Known about the structure:
Largest sheet: 6 strands, mixed
CATH superfamily of the largest domain: P-loop containing nucleotide triphosphate hydrolases
Order of helices and strands: EEEHEEHEHHHHEHEHEEHHH
Number of strands: 10
CATH architecture of the largest domain: 3-Layer(aba) Sandwich
CATH topology of the largest domain: Rossmann fold
Strand order of the largest sheet: 6-7-8-3-9-10
Number of helices: 11
Shape: globular
Bound molecules: adenosine-5'-triphosphate
CATH class of the largest domain: Alpha Beta
Structural class: alpha/beta
Low-confidence stretches: 249-265
Mean pLDDT: 87
Distance between the termini: 29 Å
Amino acid sequence: xxxxxxxxxxxxxxxxxxxxxxxxxxxxxxxxxxxxxxxxxxxxxxxxxxxxxxxxxxxxxxxxxxxxxxxxxxxxxxxxxxxxxxxxxxxxxxxxxxxxxxxxxxxxxxxxxxxxxxxxxxxxxxxxxxxxxxxxxxxxxxxxxxxxxxxxxxxxxxxxxxxxxxxxxxxxxxxxxxxxxxxxxxxxxxxxxxxxxxxxxxxxxxxxxxxxxxxxxxxxxxxxxxxxxxxxxxxxxxxxxxxxxxxxxxxxxxxxxxxxxxxxx
Length: 265
Ligand SMILES: Nc1ncnc2c1ncn2[C@@H]1O[C@H](COP(=O)(O)OP(=O)(O)OP(=O)(O)O)[C@@H](O)[C@H]1O
């Protein structure tokens, strides 16, 4: 599904991503973890076309997408959410999700201008699809109100619904649990699994190790822009290089919240 080979990204002297290789296969949930500044978001930004890599190759479903524009990459089936929530605050909940459908909804200028029956049908299709995804993410309340009036956790769900409305084959979630309370995190865990059950592969950047260890098929660990481990949660959790990256040499695993959180299963 996603194949990243020897990815490089430099900001002046800083090698944010330094030879990163990883893949996400069909139907997989892969988490990308690492200490702050390890290069996770930079790698995501390269994959989604927000940054142009300085080296390496990114392929999506066999097609080379290295350095392509975000819209071109999205059209190939990759959808994302953002670390800092990006919703259209002044649009309604419903319109936020309808916006996602415009990636595949074909509307001709002629039909739009004249409000032809074909245009009205396509608008209805967008609305139906938006309701479907809002149901899917579990947002039951009023959908005509402005999205910025929703609690933060619900805005996050709107963002995921909008990403799903693009009908992606691969979904990239950048810290989806940030700012969520315990109950919301549990719901997010179920939601991520249900998305995967639809046949959508998922790559996830996340600091909440409880969630990562619970939901991931595979975990890729970055440090200083390089991959230092790639394996099942159980394997990665006990990998000495990972423990050292998080804790520094000689420190015990009990000393960080990340590792404590990892021991939920
Ligand atoms: N736009 C930028 N300009 C310059 N340096 C940057 C820029 N974005 C990121 N960096 C640097 O690149 C490195 C990787 O940052 P990045 O945000 O990708 O890490 P991260 O693993 O996502 O961190 P976090 O977990 O804190 O979000 C850091 O040293 C960071 O300071």
